[in-house]
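Everyone, study these two lines:
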Amino acid sequence: MSKFNTEMLHVNFGMGTSETKPIIPRKYTLTHSDTTGELFLTIAAKYDYAKITDMRDEVLAEWIMFNNEYQLMVNVMVDKEKNPIISAKRNNIFIKELPLALQAIIYGDREFFRENPFLYKAPIYVKFNSVYPMFNRLELWGTPSDYKL
């Protein structure tokens, strides 16, 4: 895993979202620059589709309510076409880099967590989206407190 550098994170709040509310809808679009290593986090009521590229290496997350419990649902696109070698490589990259991505989201929205500290205990689920059953899965990745700096 790469080390998270807070100085490389740029946060933008979109329409209908402030630093502390609402909980729902609250969506995160995390992208990065391969050249500079900078991370770009948009926090808004909708995903920042303008930042999503054909590479599909962004991390999308949102707060949901399921079984009367807040959960942070994260989505990554392992593949969108059939190439098992590329899918396996992308799967491994997501597994390696997801802790950093989760740290960036939690740190980037730290005022929100200060206002809603109970959300530090909410489960984080990651949906790996793939055309291959071995890579297409839903996993529990701990809680935001696991990724707090």
About this structure: Strands lie at 9-13, 27-32, 39-44, 59-66, 69-77, 124-129, 137-140. The longest strand covers residues 69-77.
